[in-house]
Amino acid sequence: MKKIFLLAGAFLFFIVLVLLLPSCNNNDAAVPKTDATVAEANTPPATVTVQANLLSGHLDTLWITAADFAALGNGTRITFRFYDSLDAFTLRGWTGNSNSWNDRLPDVKLLIGRQSPVMYGSGSYLGNLQISPAQYTTIRQKLTATSATYVVFGPVNPTVPPNAGQISYNIYVTSDDPSDFSPAFKYKFLVETTGVTTNPSPPKNSN
């Protein structure tokens, strides 16, 4: 009987030894983390740094049909705010008192036309822009005189004085389709200027 107990004890000891050996080998193979390894693990990827940089790119020409523009009525003051459409910046406009802007949808939605060579980026102001009642009337008169079917907003280089970084737009009228993106298409509206340029809001001059 004593011999049986001794054999059983030896057998259990052998089982425990077999189970412990792989654990010991794993601990020996483990490499302790150094300070450099920990620092590398905590370093953000390069893409995070890139995403943190300021946005930059080309501004697009923007447009609205002459009929929609004229429907706003003479004596209209329009204040535009920049709108990120995910693909590009465009402008949304409100008429009347600015106190009501947050309670209603925009009265004017400019559509995106062909990309312009004008760049925006660091040092550019994406501030509100305004067309005064007198400027609106001037554009209406130009539409009537030329029978144009579109009003086009052409970006002005913000780095050229006296813009001082403020993004603004010269306004043209045309019968050329601003939504035509074909490579062979050439805009002719640049010769039909209205003489109107959007003002910063609050405006530097307003009638």
Describe the structure.
The chain is an alpha+beta fold and 207 residues long. Helices cover 30% and strands 29% of the residues. The chain has a five-stranded antiparallel beta sheet. Strand 2 (78-84) and strand 3 (89-95) form a beta hairpin. The longest helix is centred in the first third of the chain and has 28 residues, at 2-29. Mean pLDDT is 75; it is low at 1-8 and 48-53.
Give the gist of this structure.
The chain has 2 domains: 2-49; 55-200, DNA Polymerase III, Chain A, domain 2, CATH 3.10.150. The protein is α+β, with helices and mostly antiparallel strands and 207 residues long. The protein is built from 5 helices and 10 strands; from the N terminus they run H-H-H-E-H-E-E-E-E-E-H-E-E-E-E.
Highest-level CATH class of the largest domain: Alpha Beta
- End-to-end Cα distance: 116 Å
Helix content: 25-40%
Total domain modules: 2
Shape: globular
Any idea of the CATH topology of the largest domain? DNA Polymerase III, Chain A, domain 2
Low-confidence blocks of residues: 1-8, 48-53
User: What is the N-to-C succession of helices and strands?
Assistant: HHHEHEEEEEHEEEE
Q: Report the major sheet.
A: 5 strands, antiparallel
Number of alpha- plus pi-helical segments = 5
Per DSSP, what share of the residues sits in E-state strands of 2 or more residues?
A: 25-35%
Please identify the structural class as seen in this structure.
alpha+beta
Write the layout of secondary structure elements.
Elements: H1 2-29, H2 35-42, H3 46-52, E1 57-65, H4 66-70, E2 78-84, E3 89-95, E4 108-109, E5 111-120, E6 129-131, H5 133-146, E7 150-156, E8 168-174, E9 193-197, E10 199-200
Antiparallel strand pairs: 1-5, 1-7, 2-3, 2-6, 3-4, 6-10, 7-8, 8-9
